[in-house]
Write the structure tokens for this entry.
Amino acid sequence: MKRILTLWKAFLRSDLREFESFFWSLLFPIILFFILSSIFGNLDSEAGINFKIGVVREEKLTGLGVIIDEVLKSTSGEEGPFVIREFPTIEEAKDALKKGSIELVMRIPKGTSSKLAAATLLKTSVIKSELEMFYIPGNQSSEIAADIMSSVFNQVDLEIAKRKNPDYSSVEIVKNSLTTEKAEEFSYVTFLFPGVLLMTVLIVTLMDSPYTLTFSRDSGLNRKLYSTPISPLQYLIANILKAVSMNILGVVLLYIVALSFYPVDNKILSLKFIGAFFFSLVTMLPFGLMIASLVKKASAVVAISQILFQTMMFLGGLYFPITNAPPAMKVIIHTIPTTYLVELMRRVLGYKFSDMSNYMLLLVPILWATGATIIFSFNFKKVMAYE
Amino acid sequence: MPTAIEVKQLVKHYGTVKAVDGISFNVKIGECLAILGPNGAGKTTTVEILEGLRKPDSGNIFYFESEVHKVGKEIKDVIGVQLQTSSFMDYLTVKETIKLFGGLYTKSLSPEDLIQLVELNEKSRTLVKNLSGGQKQRLALAVALVNDPRILFLDEPTTGLDPQARRLLWDTILKLKARKKTIVLTTHYMEEAEQLADRIVIIDHGKIVASGTLDDLIKTVKENQFIEFRLPNSYGDETIFNKLREHFPGLKLSDDGKFICPTLDIETSLEKIFNLLGNLNSKVENIVIRKPNLEDVFLKLTGHSLRD
């Protein structure tokens, strides 16, 4: 055990000092998470805002009610942040909201004009005109649209009040949250997190681990180590421990950044999710050993690892759902283990992007890991390069 | 003197090539044995079998007078190995590298002492990737000594080093010899074997062709002197060589155009050479008279040079 720990410590120290290992294992996942979540997660809400609002008019606004029309007009078009879409019924508007084609629904109920007029004339807050808004909690765009629209109408109300009676309010905004099974939970950053997490696993298992083994073999480090009392198995264990440690370090950093700066669901802290991550790590580790078994030179390992890394990353749906892929691609998608591993982690977070059973999500990666382990075992002497 | 290592009829094949062909020798405790031979002679294979890095096809190995069927952890724990090309982790410092290897043995010496022994004091915090070739070889020696080994294997320790770095490493090995460390050294430099070894085993094509002390080996060359010379602006004229050879059957022409003439009577031979060359209208330059060395022994035994 002492020998394994000594070697593990040296491997880890060496990797942390080597810029390439440090960058790919620790920094790159954070950078990728930042880039993807900034582009697709609507984190930068200050720039390029264009919220689509569905308006349902249950009456034609007249008299003072025209003010509401004016407000909607002034906040839409080229100057305003909103794009207005008219819907004939509240149900159709809610459907569009659920499907994500609009961010907010505003319902102008019957009697709005008369209530507004009465409230203003009688200078009372007893009679109010109620404007209903529907939004999707957890959806950043929807929440922001609802907040902006509420503040706009509150401001309009205050202006009227200043002129008439400081104690009354004529318009009340009623905010309703609209919930659907999918829409309630969807957040791109939460969706993305398991993908980037699995990418850290791929970096260590597909890229780093087979390269380290073949490079040590090519450079003669193995040979030097085997002239000491350390056994090939101890050397392999130290190597695996180093890979696992590097991965855990990278993952811890990613967790810290994600939880500190992004609205990632706290479910990523659950034991079930962490278990799914470790399951991914354990089932992917033999994959790297299999590559080292089948490829002779470190330079060739780099090429093969890259091809597998890119395939598993993009066709595994790590960053985007892969639902509309052509049939030939679907064969690959359903063959590679990452499709199952990322779906497994996402299901823990409440997302479901395929009809595969939970049993399948475990079985396919286990089959891959078993096959890879068998191939590696047959080539153990060759991979570890000893006689 | 008790033996540290004894090898009997060691055989090793690589496919159809017989790399080691029935080698037998022994190493006494406290002595430095050099295995001398040209590249591809089977030196490295022999020591790698003794180091446990390769398995022999047949033969017997005895460590400290007990037969060892497999060179395993117990033996590896008490031997030190400097490989022909030692590779270390580039991003560890000299001191960290010595500490790492120290941690792989049951006992280990202090890294500071070893750094001092191999004269790398100023480089103890330097990353391995920033060391020169000579410094890396000295680090390799320090690593080979980290477990205070009972037997030290040095496989071509100075190959590829410049003369200054080679001399520095020899000095360190001589210090170890003075401490009565048992050393097995492979080399294809005769000067290295002459400088460092108590006994020499000469190996060629996987077989031992001679063994003994330097004096014993040199005595096998019956001619006690050699005349070496060159012809001006020539890398060795075949016609002149053939004419001279009629009178000096032992005459050799080296690859770099040097005539090497073994002789028992220096004065007569010199006179004869000058006369013959005068008759052929040729002059002599760079004439040297020297005593026989290991190169001559090797040449006599194998018919080819150590550098071939």
User: Anything to note?
Assistant: The CA atoms of residues 122 and 164 of chain A lie 10 Å apart. The radius of gyration of chain A is 29 Å. The interface with chain B takes residues 2-3, 6-7, 9-11, 13-15, 17-18, 216, 219-221, 223-231, 386-387 of chain A (CB under 8 Å). Residues 51-185 of chain A form a domain with the abc type-2 transporter like fold fold (CATH 3.40.1710.10).
